[in-house]
Amino acid sequence: MLKLKPTKKRTRKNRLHVTSPLNYSKYNSITWRLVSTIKRLSPSWQATIPLAAMIVLAWGYAAVAQTPAGPSTGDLKVALDTLWVAIAAFLVFFMNAGFCMLETGFCRQKNAVNVLAKNLIVFALATIAFWSIGFGLMFGDGNDFIGLSGFFLPADNSPAIGDAYKGAFSSLNWTGVPLEAKFLFQLVFAGTAATIVSGAVAERIKFVDFLIFSLLLVGIAYPITGHWIWGAGWLADMGFFDFAGSTVVHSVGGWAALMGAAFLGPRIGKYQGKQAIAMPGHNMSIATLGCLILWLGWFGFNPGSVMAADPKAITHIALTTNMAGAVGGIAATATAWLYLKKPDLSMIINGVLAGLVGVTAACAYVNIPSSIIIGLVAGVIVVFSVTFFDRLGIDDPVGATSVHLVCGIWGTLAVGLFAVGPGGYPWMVDLAGKPIGPHGLFMGGGLSTLIPQIVGIVSVGGITVLLSTIFWVALKSTLGIRVTPAEEIEGLDIGEHGMEAYHGFVKEAESGAFAETPHYDKR
Q1: What is the dihedral of CA 27, 30, 35, 40, to 10 degrees?
Q2: End-to-end CA separation in angstroms for the chain
Q3: What is the pLDDT of residues 100-116, one digit of tens each?
Q4: Which residue(s) pair with 482 in the sheet?
Q5: What gap in Å lies between CA 425 and CA 112, rounded to an integer?
Q6: H or E segment at 98?
Q7: What are phi and psi of 429, to 5 degrees?
Q8: Closest residue by Cα to residue 191 from 297, 290, 292, 326
Q9: Rounded-to-integer distance, Cα 26 and Cα 47, Å
Q10: CA atoms of 59 and 37, how far apart (whole Å)
Q11: Which pLDDT score is estimated for 515?
């Protein structure tokens, strides 16, 4: 233990004298007392003093030199916005799993591998097509009809916005996230459009023809119409609004699917005379799972289209989306129960999806009661649409045309009917804070928004039908788009892929299977 010699007790006078700064005697010098104290230490303790001093000085220097200034508010906003956009893109990507399950469950057992293979490979193809050409055609700077720059994703100065943005994608200068985040989010939308076609042409299309058509759709047809609306093209200038893609994604995919189903013709056994025969899917469990996955994915599809971590916008859009999907499922259940005499599960599934598709264009512009009406109407019309296309001889195994095309058209019209008007919500402003947005007929906006919506539906539908027809006719004339009757009867899993999804399971007996299959009474 360190011991110090006792000192005499100082008087008040002495204490004041010691602390006086004018006295420099050795007895009151702080330095002298420090040296005196050190001398009383043992040699080993004295040896540690230089080391301790060096450590203290080093720590002090490091603390000063390494103290960060901290991220700015702008940097934090970019980080949060990018994180949200990425999470939303991941949710939309996961919708591929939902389409896989839904379409496989709705189709017959002998075609399960073919449906799964199409849904898996289509996103890989969409990635290459959209990166190389599609993104540039859709969002690249050009004219009002097509983008002419931005191919192969050249670098820009994103996340700069507004006039500060310098790059090939001026139509996306409103969102303050890196270019890679913009591309990723738009890519998963493009993949969705191609996946819609898969269900409508299932169980009879050649695998290679579907791959080629998917490349053409994502690389050419989808970006051209997308440029008109989201690429600052002529429809956007006219005042056409589609927040998350009822027309841009769903109707385009629906039109392409309709033309594919029409050129392919119905499956063998679908019709006896003029009567459409139901061909039930082999696994409604995974079809239901697919519906739930898609429902979850829609919380990235619609709220993610804000392209920013705006809590009010995201939660409002998520709620309108969920309301429409829920009411769509309820409405389809009731309609099928009354019209088809049974609460058909396939109709319930398509009703939920119909409500989600229907609200996609208007989800950011309408209030909760309006979203309920949108979902209600979508759930009713999808049931009648499925039976309507059956009567026309359009064989759509999963109802993709009814869900995505018919309800996509309805959702686009709903913007012109129910939108609250410019500045109706805090996020309905431009970069300068000026109120923008559609104004629906039923909300006092007259026909100012409804007319551009109708023009957009007709024009997008027309060009998509034209391009799809060219693609399908070219494929039919060269490669042939349909498998042989023998392959179709045996199943595309064997004919196209040489394998089975359920090896060892009992297969359906093709002979007499169609005659014994129940069908709906549509009287």
Answers
A1: 70
A2: 106
A3: 999 999 999 999 999 99
A4: 205
A5: 45
A6: helix 73-106
A7: -140, 160
A8: 297
A9: 25
A10: 25
A11: 41
Q: What phi, psi does 205 have (nearest 5°)? A: -90, 145
Print burial letters for 305-340: b (CB count within 10 Å at least 16), e (below 16): bbbbbbeebbebbbebbbbbbbbbbbbbbbbbeebb
For 473, half-sphere exposure in the C-beta direction (CA atoms, 13 angstrom radius) is: 6
Q: In terms of Cα–Cα distance, which of 264, 258, 257 is closest to 205?
A: 264
| Distance between CA atoms of residues 24 and 467, nearest Å | 99
Query: Tokens 């923008």, residue?
Result: 436
CA–CA separation, 290 and 287 (whole Å): 5
Look at strands 275-276 and 271-272 and give their pairing. antiparallel
Residue 199 has pLDDT above 80, yes or no: yes
Residue 307 per-residue DSSP state: -
pLDDT digits (tens, 9 = 90+) for 289-340: 999 999 999 999 999 999 999 999 999 999 999 999 999 999 999 999 999 9
Record the pTM. 0.84
Instruction: Indicate if the pLDDT at residue 514 is higher than 60.
Output: no
pLDDT tens-digit readout, 181-195: 999 999 999 999 999
What pLDDT is attached to residue 72?
Answer: 86
**pLDDT tens, 424-468?**
999 999 999 999 999 999 999 999 999 999 999 999 999 999 999
| Residue 439 three-state SS | strand
Only one residue has tokens 């080993």, namely 44
User: Which run of H or E residues covers position 220?
Assistant: none
Report pLDDT digits (tens) over 442-452: 999 999 999 99
- Six token digits for residue 465: 């039908």
Tell me the backbone φ, ψ of residue 366, rounded to 5 degrees: -120, 160
Closest to 366 in 3D by CA, of 448, 441, 451, 299: 441
Tokens of 186: 């738009």
Q: Are 406 and 400 in contact (CB under 8 A)?
A: no
For residue 163, what is the DSSP state? G
pLDDT at 9: 42
Do the beta carbons of residue 285 and residue 105 sit within 8 Å? yes
Place of tokens 């289209």: 305
Q: How many CA atoms lie within 13 A of 257 on its CB side?
A: 30
Other CB atoms closer than 10 Å to residue 514's CB: what's the count?
16
Segment 148-160, tens digit of pLDDT: 999 999 999 999 9
CA distance 238 to 248: 16
Q: What is the structure's pLDDT at 31?
A: 64
Which DSSP symbol is given to 306? G
Query: Strand ranges (DSSP E) for 150-281?
Result: 271-272, 275-276
Q: Which amino acid is at 351?
A: G
